[in-house]
Each structure stands twice: as structure tokens, then as C-alpha cells.
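INTERNAL AUDIT FORM
Audit reference: QA-55
Scope: verify that the stored structure record matches its stored sequence.
Auditor: D.O.
Record contents follow.
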Amino acid sequence: MTETLSNAAPTVGDAIFMTENLWIMISAMLVFFMGLGFACVESGLCRAKNATNICFKNIAVPAIGISVYALVGFGLMYPGEFNGWLGFAGFGIGDWLDPSKFTAAYNGHFSMFADWLFQAMFAATAATIVSGAVAERVKLSSFLVFTFFYVAFVYPAVGSWVWGGGWLSEFSAFGAQGFHDLAGSELVHSVGGWGALAGVLILGPRIGKYVNGKPHAIPAHNVPLATIGVFILWFGWWGFNGGSALSGNPFDVSLILVNTNLSAVAGVFTATVASWLIARKPDATMALNGCLAGLVAITASADIVSPMSAWVIGAIGGVFVVFAVYMFERLHLDDPVGALSVHLVNGIWGTLAVGIFDNTGRYNVATQALGVVAYAIPCFLTACLIFIVIKKTMGLRVSEREELKGLDLTEHGQESYGGFQIFSNT
């Protein structure tokens, strides 16, 4: 394909190849832009004294994630012929010395370079999900070490089970034709969610979150910033889901984008209604997380459900996210940004929704539920192991003094807002 494009007059096939390759690269750019959305959402929903720390983590995570994905992650996730459980294709330092290995057409649609670029953007997202859940009390160095190991080994290894052609993609019991997850309700969001749950459990709640056993609200410091972040994430999701068609087919991509947006608006609607009924006032942060819940929920099935089903999936996700926030608070699981409610709970819901609303007749709830369990056990246990080893060796949580003063000053010696140190204990 490269030789044809370089030395001969372009054909119709060349034009299609170039168009589809361009769509994958644009989708990769949209997913990359979501990093800014995560930074805005997480920093906006946390306290001002920790905003710089959160922004730093959100620039460091893709730097680490993309680097280790280039080194080992891609080779683990797409190992080619392997035993279905664990394999390695060899993409690493040696392969990057010879770029010609990545210029071949992948599945006739786009170059291997374009595929790697798109997949690398996904790799960093799983650790970014963990970042918000452990915000305001985790040591920066410790979190970066966790990111390295989780993105380098855990995410790509379990991802190969489906997207790399592994055992779960071929699982045919219960009458289903394999496990289905278009863009990562399970493979990205639940994988990140299980890591987040492990971190929250091992770290414990923030100082002052629970008073006499009862949850104490710690308000977001900048709701407008969080709102900007949600809109950026919503926009980026067009590439997240649309690019996962791995094709520029106009009918497939159009359906995916329509379903993605219908699910998002449904999540906003039902989360607003649910929070209004419970709290007697409309909670803006619940509406924002309702949008994200709808997006996460439709991510697995956007290519195989009808637009009406997409709206219902998002609507249920919006209700789930509200009740999950209250549930985790009662369980004393302190999650400053609602990452568990958005990504873990709705990642699971979106995975199961494939079997409920699939209009192709190929998938069912039993196989999807098997996939949920298959990812829950290794992701949660390995995340716990990484966090525990870090805790025993280099420490996981900042000191009480550092937490009260804020991580901006104690970890970075910088402020997000000039002169804010006068409020450092709030």
C-alpha cells in the first residue's frame, strides 16, 4: 500500500485507505484531547489547594502511559498468534528503530502507525480514571509508579483477551458469539474503575470526610471548570467511540455517534431528575456525572443497539450514577470526583447492556457477565498488589500536615491561585 501511494497514480482504493486512515488519526486526536477534559473535571471537583497537583498528574499520566505502551504495552495487547491468555508480539525498542514495520496497512483500513497512535491514547485513560478517585491524599511519586505498572502490564494484558483476539473474544458458550465491547465500557472504564476501587480502599478517606461516622460534604471548588471538562470529554468521546469502529464506514460511524450522544443526554436528564428528587435541589455535579455515566454506559454497545435503546441505556446509567455516589459515601469509600460511580458502576452496566439491547442476536447477558467477572478479579487484585507494595516500600499517602496544607504547596511548591495559602486548611 505504501509503495502504491508513493509511486503510482492514486486509485479509488488508495483514496478510501487515506480517508479511513485520516479518520483514525482524527479520532486519536479527539481521545488525546480528552486528557484536558479529565484535568478540568478532576481539578474542578476537588479543592483549590490540590488543583495544581491534579493538573500535574493529568499531564504526567499520558507521558508515562504512551511511553510504556510504546515499549511493551502494544506488544502485550496485540500479540498476534498466542495462547489466548498472554502473549507478546515484540513491539519495543528494536521495532521503533525500524519505522517501516509500522507503515503496512492494518486490516486494509489504515496504517499500523495510525492504529498504534489510536490505541496508545486509550492506554493512558485507564490510569487517569484512578487519578480522580485517589485525589487529594495520594503521594505524587507513588501514583506515578502505580501508573507505570498498571498501564505497562495490567491494562494491555487483560485487553488482549478481547481486542487482541484472546480467549474472551472467542468465547461462545450460552449461545453467544463471543464477548463484545466496542470501545471499552469494560476494557477501559471498568479496568480503570477496579484500579480506582483498590486505591480508595487502601488509601482510606480524606481527613474531614467523615465526622462521627457520617459523611461530610467537601464541595467542588470550581463547578464551571468541571463543566468545561465534561463538554471536552463529551466531544472527545466522538473519537473514543467513533474511531473504535476501526473504519470510516459512514453508516457504522454515524450510528455510533448518534447513539453516543443520545446516551449522554439521557444520562444528564435522569441524573438531574434523580438528584433533584433526593436532594430537593438540582445538583450540577450530578448532572455532569450523569453525562459521563451515559457516555461510559454506551461505550460497549454503540455499534449494535438502536438509537432508542441507546437513550434507555444512558437514562439507566444516569440513575445508577446518582445512587452509586450515595452508596459509596455510606460505605465510607471516599471518591472526590465520582470516578467509581461513573466508570466502574456504569462500565459494568454498559457491558451488561450489550446482552440486553443487542439487535444483532450475537450477544447475551451471560457471556457479558462472565466478562465482567473475568476483568474484575485480575484487575482489582493486581491493583491491590501494586498499591500494597508501594505502601510498604515508598509510602502511599501524604502526611496529615501535607494533606491539610494542600498538595499544591507541599508536593510542588506552587499555587493554582495566587495567595490561596490563607485558605490552606479548608
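Auditor finding: record pair retrieved intact. Residues 422-426 have pLDDT under 50 and may be disordered.
Action required: none
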